[in-house]
């Protein structure tokens, strides 16, 4: 079971926003990037305009990844805000 880095990008970002960082992450770490609706692979979904909705969406995505093993949450810009709110 690998340790995980779970990343949340900046406002408007998606999983591709971390490509330049991800290629430098050691292979022993699993890099997982969560995306909000309206971005990246979820482009066809309606955008969320309330922080509470974004946190709920991210928590639903996050839970399967944190049931086992060690992990850290990494947020960039708005991702940092959402990581902090998700941890409450």
Automatic annotation (TrEMBL):
Residues 4-82 form the Thioesterase domain. Pfam families: Thioesterase. GO terms for biological process: lipid biosynthetic process. It comes from the Bacteria. InterPro entries: AB_hydrolase_fold, TEII, Thioesterase. Belongs to the thioesterase family. PANTHER family: S-ACYL FATTY ACID SYNTHASE THIOESTERASE, MEDIUM CHAIN (PTHR11487:SF0), THIOESTERASE (PTHR11487). This is Thioesterase domain-containing protein.
């Amino acid at each position: 079971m690998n340790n995980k880095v779970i990343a949340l990008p900046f406002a408007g970002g998606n999983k591709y926003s971390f490509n330049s960082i991800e290629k430098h992450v050691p292979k022993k770490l699993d890099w997982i990037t969560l995306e909000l609706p309206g971005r990246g692979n979820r482009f066809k979904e309606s955008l969320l305009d309330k922080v509470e909705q974004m946190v709920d969406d991210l928590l639903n995505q996050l839970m399967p990844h944190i049931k086992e093993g060690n992990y850290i949450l990494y947020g960039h810009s708005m991702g940092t805000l959402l990581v902090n709110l998700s941890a409450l």
